[in-house]
Structure to design on (230 residues):
């Protein structure tokens, strides 16, 4: 009796996609090396067949047979590589799809947790509360900004206040006019006029510039010469 019969059949571990992709790529590398080796053998057998084509036909035929056998193996390796590459691509695509689905599922779960405590009724109630508080704040601001006491009396009209101000200005003007002294008689005119009128001092005239003085002298000299010629 073995251990598996005592404890039951041991279940196989789940294959990891990343590990599977790694092993497939390792197999591809091994097949690449095998393919290069077989292609080198194909070239070698072809050279052997060419070398013995005229002098040893049997050896040349055997070389061609081995060449075809290697070429057949190369074809099989090529098909195997194609299968492995297709499997790698499928695994990578599935892995990306799984990661995408996991991310989407995680996002949906997060949104569900957020919306779990919210519903349309609660949102409407919250918006109503906000509007009510905003209206209350506006009413309080309006009430606080209104003047209190006599300044806030609606009976105090601005037109009446302006009329009262004009009356005060008129009273002040009348008071100033009453303060001006009243003159009964004009002063007597002088009986005699002064014999001489004092001369009014004239301001000194500014001196002419030198070139104006020279012109005047030349003019006077010309007039004097003209009078002497007569």
């Amino acid at each position: 009796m073995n251990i598996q019969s005592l404890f039951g059949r041991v279940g196989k571990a789940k294959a990891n996609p990343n590990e599977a992709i790694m092993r497939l790529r390792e197999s591809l590398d091994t097949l690449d090396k095998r393919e290069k080796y077989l292609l080198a053998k194909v070239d070698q057998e072809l050279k052997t067949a060419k070398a013995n084509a005229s002098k040893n036909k049997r050896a040349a035929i055997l070389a061609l047979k081995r060449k075809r056998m290697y070429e057949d193996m190369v074809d099989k390796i090529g098909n195997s590589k194609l299968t492995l590459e297709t499997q790698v691509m499928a695994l990578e695509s599935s892995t990306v799809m799984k990661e995408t689905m996991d991310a989407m599922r995680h996002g949906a779960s997060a949104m569900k947790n957020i919306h779990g405590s919210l519903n349309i009724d609660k949102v409407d109630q919250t918006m109503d509360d906000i509007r009510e508080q905003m209206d209350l704040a506006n009413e309080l601001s309006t009430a606080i900004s209104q003047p209190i006491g006599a300044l806030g009396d609606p009976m105090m009209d601005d037109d009446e206040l302006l009329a009262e101000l004009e009356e005060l200005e008129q009273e002040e003007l009348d008071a100033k006019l009453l303060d001006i002294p009243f003159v009964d008689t004009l002063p007597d005119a002088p009986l005699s006029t002064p014999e001489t009128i004092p001369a009014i001092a004239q301001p000194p005239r500014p001196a002419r510039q030198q070139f104006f003085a020279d012109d005047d002298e030349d003019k006077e000299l010309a007039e004097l010469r003209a009078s002497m010629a007569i």
